[in-house]
Amino acid sequence: MPLTTRQKILIIGSLVAIAMVLIPVCLWQQATVKPQLVIYGPRGISDLGYAAAQSFSKKYGINATFVHFGMGSIEIVQKAIEESKDPKADVILAIPEFYATPIIEKGVLEKYAPSNIREISETKIWDRTGHVTPLDEAPIIIIYNSTMLEKLKLPAPETLDDLTRPEYKGLVVYNSPVTSGTGLSVLTWVLTEKGENEGFDYLLRLKANIAPVGYPSGFSSLITVLRTGRAAIVVSFNSHVVDPQTPHMKTKGTTGFMYREGMALVKGAKNAEAAKKFIEFMTSKEGQDLVDPNNYMYPIRDDAVVTNLKNAPRPLKTVTYNWALGGRADVWREKWRTQIAGA
Amino acid sequence: MFGERSGEHRSLALRSNLPLLAAVTFFFFLFVVPLSQIIAGASIAELLEVIMDVRIQRIVTNTFIQAALSSIISLLLATPVAYLFAKYTFPGATLVRALFLVPFFTPAFAFAEALFILFDPQGVINRFLMHLFSLQTAPISILYSMNAVVLAHVFYYTPLATILLEGGFSALDQNLIDASHICGASDLKTFRRIVAHQLAPALAAALALVFVFSFLTFSTPLLVGGNFYTTEVEIYYYWSKLGGWTKARTLSLLQLAFNMVFVTLVFWGRERVFRTKTAGETTQLRKERFSLGLLNSRSGIILILSLVIVLLEVLPVYAIIVSSFGGESLDLIPRTLTLSNFRELFQYDFGGGISFLNSMTLSVLIATFVSLVTVFAALITAYGLVHSSDRGRSALGAITSMPLAVSSTAMALALYASYGVPPFSLYGRWELIALAHMLYTFPLTTRIIESALVKVNPDLVDASLTLGASRIYTFFAVEVPIIGKNLFAASLVAFSSSLSEFTFSYIFSVAGIQTMPVLVTRLLDRTIPLLGVASAGTSIILALIFLAVTASAVLAKKGLGLTL
């Protein structure tokens, strides 16, 4: 017997209603329980953030949640500053060394050093104000595509000054400091080594040698540029040399810039005790063992595991951020944007 | 009066303001409350500064030029394809149409890859031209410029413009076209006086949507634009600048205002120029069976052009599939075929107890929930819109399109501030992602349903009421069955949009709640990205969307029912 219109309406309506009830029920188990520790960090370290939160939760029975908001390291710091009157985060993970000063000066962080900080080499503790505990580090170096340079019969560059040589015209690339933390690290290296005024003069000269691709916006787009041979020389992390997708990338760089990042307790954190425990956990060998496998950075503990970067080249001499430059990262980005990119 | 559609002249029983009130309430909580967060965080002083800033003026101008070029070229390319789909029937038409629409839901990185395949100095087109003319260097250099951004948008939005225009072509009055020819008018004159006039509303709607989407572009300029900046990229810069959030919010509002002026003008123009005919009042465009012989006819050039455009549009999808089966992206013919990327994808540990299979289940459930709720809300809203006065309808139409015209980052942070924190505390829960997806899909589904509802003959409704049926019964027994296919099409558009949505899903993702596009991006964001595995993930998303769009096209028969 064919269904009447009323019956059809009832059947379809019931099916929709059942679906609208059943789906939330199915998804209910996906919802997380209330977090007892909120960790802010950039999207670039999601793998480490999730792994750290998971291991910590398992060990201490404290439900830790890693939150990145799809943001980079600088935006996440901005978010913490915006929320400083009513902080939502308990810990901030991966604060770049060169961006620590502004956040410390804004009074967003609480002074805290974990009890196991003494297990770390003194030379690796870079924040002398006592707010930021070191987490990991990796060198920015000069890397080249050996096949391309051999084909062009060009020597491999070794220093920043080499990059401005006319024979490298259209071959050099580095990330945009406006959209990329790696790019900002390159800018910081140049300014640390050459000083602010001379550094920008150098970047202007270097602009003549930048490849037609311009300044890639992020790390993955930089990899695409290298993978497809659109640039022969790059200033970036040493991981490119061990990346199987870029097998021709090599380095002769004897110097490099050591990018360092840390973690800190948020002032007024709602779960301060759990946050302190987390920082201590990440300073321990157990926490540090998560760094290289999940973040392709070097742990700051000498006894921690290094597998991914085991064969990556390390420069003989590294430059570290010059704290005398102060918290001027934003000023530099603005200057780079207007004077170098010239958008 | 037969054929009238404004509230005053429709059935007397349709005057109730209840649906409109319900729609306003839904829209208020979904959009106005978060928008108020952006407004509260903006400043008049910053607004003046932003307006006077020469650099921002230049960026807004460039963005406008880019959006205008993107929309005009997309419309020009979409027109012949829409005509092909509307006029001709051919075996496999449903599948071809569905495949043609999939690029609209493809992630930005995949399009960037497609541009490399085609336009790189070592790309397919340059290699072909160098071989053909014995050239030493690549003749086409388009990447990393505004032109590359326009090109990517043309790839993206030609399918969207096509489905809008197909509806317009299908609704052309065949009687008028025949009469014009009988009276001796040339093809050109018939096109100018009959076709162009009747097609104007669909063209205007397509222009408005593609323009707004192109104006709000963010990932594409970052991937292929080189030093070309758009307003959205500028807004992103201020999010990341110390103390720059007020300016970011202010600029977001300025961007919204700019887009709304444009959209309102388009809707206002539509109301002035066009009067929708109800079903049965006119004849529709006569369908013909496609045959190769037609290529030699007067329509031959249009058909050949359409086929070339369809092939080019399918190329990015093809490139992703090749890459997911182990091929190199620059090879059109894969050298190897393997399932290892798919195997690795399903075995990959994303941390937090998440696997790709979990994520697939989560994404499909969220998309299903979003499509059900959105279509229900859009149905009520569209009902309210259709039964309001002409002037009110164009204003409300523009207002309900507003969520599409706001910066995604600004809106996501506003949603977080409204519903992510106490008392709602939805952050870290799937409901916040679903809410954001509803906001994103609501304008499009409302347009689809509104365009169907407006064509329901009010005489049928009056007849039902005269025979004693209640208003609610009449609505479900008369109006809903008439627009049933469009409701289904709208729900599948919402489903596909939710499934492929990235920005909100990414911003609101936590360890246990991650949708498929988020996991794919994580594979690409690794220090050493897993490109093949990411392509396998994208292929699965696109396959699900293809299935949804095909089902939609099969059930809706005539495209997606998107006629405005």
Topology, pairings included?
The complex is a heterodimer of chains A (343) and B (564).
Chain A: H1 5-28, E1 37-40, H2 46-60, E2 64-67, H3 73-82, E3 91-96, H4 100-105, E4 109-110, E5 132-145, H5 146-151, E6 172-173, H6 181-194, H7 196-207, H8 219-227, E7 233-237, E8 249-251, E9 255-266, H9 272-283, H10 285-288, H11 291-295, E10 298-299, E11 317-319, H12 329-341
Parallel strand pairs in A: 1-2, 1-3, 6-7, 9-11
Antiparallel strand pairs in A: 3-9, 4-9, 5-7, 5-8, 5-9, 5-10
Chain B: H1 18-41, H2 44-52, H3 54-87, E1 88-89, H4 93-101, H5 108-119, H6 124-133, H7 146-170, H8 174-182, H9 187-215, H10 219-224, H11 231-239, H12 245-273, E2 288-289, H13 300-324, H14 340-347, H15 356-386, H16 390-400, H17 408-420, H18 430-453, H19 458-466, H20 471-482, H21 484-500, H22 503-507, H23 516-525, H24 531-556
Parallel strand pairs in B: 1-2
* Tally of helical segments of chain A: 12
Write down the overall mean pLDDT of chain A. 89
Report the CATH superfamily of the largest domain in chain A.
Periplasmic binding protein-like II
Strand residue percentage of chain B: under 5%
Estimate nothing, just give the exact number of structural domains of chain A.
2
- Span between termini of chain B: 22 Å
Outline the structure in words.
- The complex is a heterodimer of chains A (343) and B (564).
- With 343 residues, chain A is of the alpha/beta class.
- Chain A folds into 2 domains: 37-136 and 260-311, 3-Layer(aba) Sandwich (D-Maltodextrin-Binding Protein, domain 2), CATH 3.40.190; 139-257 and 329-341, D-Maltodextrin-Binding Protein, domain 2 (3-Layer(aba) Sandwich), CATH 3.40.190.
- Chain A has helices at residues 5-28, 46-60, 73-82, 100-105, 146-151, 181-194, 196-207, 219-227, 272-283, 285-288, 291-295, 329-341; strands at 37-40, 64-67, 91-96, 109-110, 132-145, 172-173, 233-237, 249-251, 255-266, 298-299, 317-319.
- In chain A, helix 2 (46-60) links the parallel strand 1 and strand 2 (64-67).
- In chain A, helix 6 crosses helix 7 (196-207).
- Chain A is globular.
- Chain B is an all-alpha fold.
- Chain B has a single domain (12-282, 293-556), classed as MetI-like (MetI-like fold).
- In chain B, 70% of the residues lie in helices and 1% in strands.
- Chain B has helices at residues 18-41, 44-52, 54-87, 93-101, 108-119, 124-133, 146-170, 174-182, 187-215, 219-224, 231-239, 245-273, 300-324, 340-347, 356-386, 390-400, 408-420, 430-453, 458-466, 471-482, 484-500, 503-507, 516-525, 531-556; strands at 88-89, 288-289.
- Chain B has a two-stranded parallel ribbon.
- In chain B, helix 3 (54-87) runs parallel beside helix 7.
- The relative contact order of chain B is 0.14.
- Residues 1-14 and 558-564 of chain B have low confidence and may be disordered.
